Amino acid sequence: MNNKPLLLISGLLLGGNLLAGCGQAVSATAPTQSAGAAQTIENCGRALSFAGVPQRAVAMTPGQSEMLVRLGQADKVVAEAQSKGRALMPELADLGTAKQLSEQSPPSREVLLGVAPDLVYSPTSYEFTAEQGFADIDQLKAAGAQAYIATAGCPERRSNAEVKDLFTDITNMGAIFGVAGQASTLAGEAQGALDSVARRVSGLPKPSVAELFVEGNTIAAIGAGIEYNMIEIAGGENVFSPDDQAFAQFFSSVISPETLVAKNPEVIVFTTIDKAHEKATIDFLRSKFPQLDAVKNNRMVAVDSDDVMPGTWGNIRAVEQIAAGLHPEAF
């Protein structure tokens, strides 16, 4: 197996109509805030200092937009990147103050700096790669903006990240925007959803699972990171592991068809870019791997690639969706 970054997984798609999740609506109304006292936040080994509450936040994916909206900060979002052609979520569109900067990749340095952000919230460090023409962390800081990377997307954390890293982001964003109470409520909602999944799958047999991303005829497996942890929480046994040499340096690895056949998972979880990609993946698996138990028994679970990216409420949705796919009798 050869390690290869999944470039398309870092490109996010998020529908304009977002699920409220766990029975609570997404609120665009900010609660009473603190006076905006200075805050210092630890993030990916860096100390981020804020003189006051950010007023011009850029969400580097729609998933980051959703997190800010859930924290009541819709009015602070001035831009969203990597929209993939999807409309802004209603809570942002109705305010008319946010615009979309890019569709298929992070915005260029000039475009991002052009909206004069004071906070940029990103799922990973990739969005700050100067070699790709993006504004890096130092350039943003020089322009008066702090760059916050989702905890599970920190370079040193990416391969051993867990879903619970989201709680650090919720707490940090609550502190940055002076809405600790709102953050506490949101964290409680997330924990309640995860606890519900744990109760439902407790004691049930764990099916073997391969988590894949298919692009054309190329198959990449997920064997580490937040995606691996999602399978664990959902009550499955991933056929690939962080202990495998192929995943020692990166959470995904391109695999051969023979490797997948040898593993013969009972369930295949696969991430998708859109409905067309979902159909193409299912068609590919049925055509190339009719002998696999997962394919024979039609146990293939599609998960939006948006929902497996670090620092988004989609992480909770993905766990619920995967668990329902692994244990339909419990949901």
TrEMBL record:
Signal peptide: 1-20
SUPFAM superfamilies listed in its UniProt record: Helical backbone' metal receptor (SSF53807)
Keyword terms of this UniProt record: Signal
UniProt-listed PROSITE patterns: FE_B12_PBP, PROKAR_LIPOPROTEIN
Alphabetical list of Pfam families matching this protein: Peripla_BP_2 (PF01497)
Classification via Gene3D superfamilies: Nitrogenase molybdenum iron protein domain
Positions of the Fe/B12 periplasmic-binding domain: 56-330
Family per record: Belongs to the bacterial solute-binding protein 8 family.
Protein name: Zinc ABC transporter substrate-binding protein
